[in-house]
UniProtKB/TrEMBL annotation:
The chain crosses the membrane at residues 41-60, 66-83, 104-120, 176-195, 231-249, 269-290. This is Uncharacterized protein. Keywords: Membrane, Transmembrane, Transmembrane helix. It comes from the Bacteria.
Length: 313
């Protein structure tokens, strides 16, 4: 009949054979983990595909070739996302097991693309929602369109032949997208400084969450983490200024036609606002990891000193 997993002893209490019980339920637990990982990877892949296809789904009158290219890119991105999140070991996605870092970035990018697509759609098919978004973007764009501001530099990236409607449209989209990026950085900063990310989720695994960071490449990981954090923050701060400057400097060689079509306009401005914010968030996260390592070393050193003092006494 096999081993008895539960016996009733003389005192009336139930004693369990833990080895048999854990062996019996282990396949069920493993199956649940596998199903959860696959379903999560599928959901993330669908969301990424939806993000890429959002402008094509919302904008009217797109060419067939453009739609086919968008579908192909969406399927490729969904496949890569599924492979990444269905794997037990990370490859390129950082902070995969430290939510909500990537969720905040995805929501920020999706919100930017969706709102910009709605504003561009409202230029040909106006509605109450698109009118409100356009008014809000216009107010924000005019407020931060001052000399040497990122929005002013992006507007100056347009060719001299651009009409006033194109200039106003770019200013509106740039103002709204830049506001979303700044708000996203503020939310993440509150999450790190006040809510205690990432330690509130449990133990933090540097190898899993920083797969592109090699801890064995140098003598000490702490100075390298601090250096990478500073570099990411500085580059993220300078990118909104550098991108328009580089485009203007190379305008004789490269004609900035990327803002002529609706989809390219949306993706260009979204990337212009999202990439700097993403790099600054990465720098803040790496600085937090460096602080955690430094605090752990300080505690370990203090405990070692206290133990040495007790042994000496």
């Amino acid at each position: 009949m096999g081993k008895i997993e539960a016996d009733l002893d003389t005192s009336g209490n139930t004693s369990w054979n833990k080895n048999a019980a854990s062996h019996r339920f282990w396949p069920v637990w493993k199956g649940r983990v596998l199903i959860g990982r696959i379903s999560g990877a599928i959901m993330r892949a669908l969301l990424v595909a939806l993000l890429i296809a959002t402008p094509a789904l919302m904008l009217p009158g797109l060419a067939v070739d453009s739609t086919q290219i968008t579908v192909l890119i969406a399927l490729l991105a969904a496949f890569l996302t599924f492979i990444e999140y269905n794997s037990n070991f990370p490859s390129i996605v950082e902070f995969r097991d430290a939510p909500p870092f990537n969720r905040i970035r995805f929501v920020s990018l999706f919100l930017t693309v969706f709102l910009l697509s709605a504003i561009v759609k409202g230029q040909s098919n106006p509605t109450l929602m698109t009118g409100g978004l356009t008014s809000m973007g216009t107010i924000i764009g005019n407020a931060i369109d001052f000399p040497y501001s990122p929005v002013r530099l992006l507007v100056l990236m347009l060719p001299e032949t651009a009409d006033n409607d194109a200039v106003r449209s770019v200013r509106t989209l740039a103002g709204l997208s830049y506001f979303i990026s700044v708000f996203t950085m503020g939310v993440f900063l509150v999450l790190v400084r006040i809510l205690g990310w990432p330690t509130r989720q449990g133990a933090f695994n540097v190898w899993v969450n920083l797969p592109l960071f090699d801890p064995t490449a140098g003598p000490d990981v702490l100075p390298r983490l601090q250096r990478d954090a500073r570099v990411n923050i500085v580059i993220g701060f300078l990118l909104p200024f550098l991108i328009p400057a580089v485009v203007n400097a190379t305008s004789d060689l490269i004609d900035p036609v990327i803002l002529n079509t609706p989809q390219s306009l949306i993706w260009t401005i979204s990337a212009w606002a999202f990439l700097p914010a993403s790099m600054i968030m990465r720098g803040i996260a790496m600085a937090k990891v460096a602080d955690m390592i430094q605090d752990k070393r300080r505690r370990a050193y203090a405990e070692a000193q206290s133990e040495d003092g007790l042994q000496t006494a």
